[in-house]
Design brief:
This protein has 77 residues and is of the alpha+beta class. It has one domain. The protein contains one helix and three strands. The structure holds zinc ion. Zinc ion binds next to loops.
């Protein structure tokens, strides 16, 4: 019997159908990368709105992690 693989949106929980408007998101905590749907990606989203929600969450967490004052580089001339 063939194995049926289902993809579920990490944003809203929608199950992927035959449409092809899905996106993949990957990142290592320092970056947020969006690409066309890739079945091997860690996160998949059903469309623009769910990607934007995920991006918004990522930006909020990135801001929290960068809450300390930035150190300025000292340049000796
Ligand atoms: Zn979704």
């Amino acid at each position: 019997m063939p194995r049926i693989v289902q993809y579920e949106c990490d944003g809203c929980g929608k199950i992927k159908g035959s449409d092809n408007h899905w996106f993949s998101v990957s990142g290592d905590g320092n970056s947020f990368q969006v690409s066309r749907f890739d079945r091997n990606a860690t996160s998949v989203f059903c469309g623009e709105q769910c990607v934007l929600t995920a991006l918004s969450d990522w930006l909020a967490s990135a801001k929290m992690h960068a809450a300390g004052p930035e150190k300025l580089a000292v340049v000796n001339q």
